[in-house]
Amino acid sequence: VQLVESGGGLVQPGGSLRLSCVVSGFTFANADMRWYRESPGEERELIAGINSDGETILYADSVKGRFTISRDDAKNTVYLQMNRLKPKDTALYLCKVRYYNYWGQGTQVTVSS
């Protein structure tokens, strides 16, 4: 199983980024997917999730109203649209298959002026 995140980068406060996570070696259509983030000195935080039905969605309070998770089963991909980014959103963002210890390598997001 392989998960590959992309789309991170440096963005100014108030800007937007769209992260992608491509999954291979797993039946993606059956997978509940999760986005986490981690930063130095902080615990890994679950920030968004979307279940295989595509309708059961969750967000952490810290990102609710600013981030949107979605999936494209035809492309084995889960997305995280991040708007109105803040400096405290700076972190390594990782995707995960729920219930399995399958993680990507992460993509770095840095929000700074």
Number of helices: 0
Span of the ends, CA to CA: 37 Å
Strand proportion, as a percent range, falls in: over 45%
Helix amount, in percent? under 10%
N-to-C series of helices and strands: EEEEEEEEEEE
The main pleated sheet reads as: 7 strands, mixed
Which runs of at least 5 residues are low in confidence (pLDDT < 50)?
A: none
User: Compute the gyration radius: what is it?
Assistant: 13 Å
Write a compact overview of the structure shown.
The chain is mainly beta. 0% of the residues lie in helices and 50% in strands. Strands 2, 4, 5, 6, 9, 10 and 11 form a seven-stranded mixed beta sheet that branches. A four-stranded antiparallel beta sheet has the order 1-3-8-7, with no helix packed on it.
Which helices and strands appear, and what pairs or packs with what?
Layout: E1 2-6, E2 9-11, E3 17-24, E4 33-38, E5 45-50, E6 57-59, E7 67-72, E8 77-82, E9 91-97, E10 102-103, E11 107-111
Parallel strand pairs: 2-11
Antiparallel strand pairs: 1-3, 3-8, 4-5, 4-9, 5-6, 7-8, 9-10, 9-11
Characterize the structure shown.
- It is a single chain.
- This protein is an all-beta fold and 113 residues long.
- The chain is 0% helix and 50% strand.
- The protein is globular.
